[in-house]
TrEMBL record:
InterPro entries: AIPM/Hcit_synth_CS, Aldolase_TIM, LeuA/HCS_post-cat, PYR_CT. Belongs to the alpha-IPM synthase/homocitrate synthase family. PANTHER family: HOMOCITRATE SYNTHASE, ISOPROPYLMALATE_HOMOCITRATE_CITRAMALATE SYNTHASE FAMILY PROTEIN. The keyword Transferase applies. Residues 3-252 form the Pyruvate carboxyltransferase domain. The keyword Flavoprotein does not apply. GO terms for biological process: carboxylic acid metabolic process. This is Homocitrate synthase.
Length: 325
């Protein structure tokens, strides 16, 4: 089995209240992430500014330019800004829930259909790879979603991005949604983590037929963020045995370098990365670990370049005495 991981630290991660990077740091991070073997990197928004476009041009013309994809609103002006950057792949985001269509845009569903029928042929006429992002698909009417899937397939889109914009999907709903969408075209998922379900939903999406998973380092993004890159990659590759194309030890190094670079504060129990991620404390756990790492660790931490650790306290008195002998 193979899954394609698409990273958006350099776009969605920059929308986190915890992160600000200079363009030079963003360039550095692009090349570091590229060195892991990751499939694709969503690097920014060309329509944002001339400086943003210059930065994107630099990346698009580099030796890893084939990994670059850029984010656009569904309008011709945004696409033209992307064309200036010499990119080969575009993401077009369009609202699909009535909340977004009516309350944000003050439009109706017919407007969305007309817009897609205008924008997709224009992008494809430029011989670009196109991913169409369904914003807030988790709160959209399912019959309307199916109509839009039929529309974008007929117009020539290469894949659809299913965006759980406010993080309200659960794994059962994810399974149903992805199975439906993947019967039309290739599926990418972009899941927010407002209720702590982004990783579980992303794994479920892959198991349900999604070919692409969008994620960011540490899960950085708006509000509570999105699927953490390290979690989804390590789980799929080390637990499920799925080929991601990513060097997990290199990724672990980069995550820790990124933490040092940004001075982001992490909870000690942050999965895989927090200081307690591979630490056990109770006597039962310590006793098991002295016999085999497989007893109380999901995988050997040395696989990613880390180490198992022990802590001692109220429920580890016997183990403490044993370790001191």
């Amino acid at each position: 089995m193979r899954v394609f991981i698409t990273d958006t630290t350099l776009r969605k991660g920059m929308q986190s209240a915890s992160l600000e990077l200079t363009y030079e740091k963003r360039k550095e991070l692009f090349f570091l992430l590229s060195s892991t073997g990751i499939h694709e990197l969503e690097v920014g928004v060309p329509a944002h500014s001339e400086e943003e476009r210059d930065y994107i041009k630099y990346l698009a013309r580099s030796q890893h330019g084939d990994k670059v994809i850029v984010w656009n609103r569904a309008n011709i002006r945004d696409v033209e800004a992307s064309l200036e950057c010499s990119v080969k792949k575009l993401e077009i985001a369009i609202p699909v829930s009535d909340f977004m269509i009516k309350e944000k845009l003050n439009k109706d569903r017919d407007y969305i259909v007309r817009l897609l029928k205008e924008i997709i042929p224009y992008v494809k006429s430029k011989k670009l790879y196109l991913s169409v992002g369904f914003e807030d698909v988790s709160r959209a009417d399912r019959e309307f979603v199916i109509k839009l899937l039929e529309c974008i397939r007929e117009e020539g889109a290469d894949r659809v991005r299913l965006s759980d914009t406010v993080g309200v999907l659960n794994p059962l709903q994810t399974n149903e949604l992805v199975k439906t969408a993947s019967s039309f075209l290739d599926v990418e998922v972009h899941f927010h983590n407002d209720f702590g379900m982004a990783t579980a939903n992303s794994i479920t999406a892959f198991l349900s037929g999604a070919k692409y998973i969008n994620a960011s380092l540490l899960g950085l993004g708006e509000r509570c963020g999105i699927t953490p890159l390290e979690e989804v990659v390590f789980y799929l590759q080390l637990i499920q045995g799925v080929h991601t194309g990513i060097n997990v030890k290199r990724l672990y190094e980069i995550v820790n370098y990124f933490i040092d670079m940004t001075n982001i504060h992490l909870a000690p129990n942050k999965p895989l990365i927090g200081k307690n991620a591979f630490t056990n404390k109770s006597s039962i756990h310590i006793d098991g670990l002295t016999k085999s790492k497989r007893t109380y660790l999901p995988f050997d931490p040395e696989v990613v370049g880390s180490k198992a650790a022990l802590a001692f306290g109220l429920y580890s008195e016997k183990a403490n005495k044993l370790c001191k002998k």
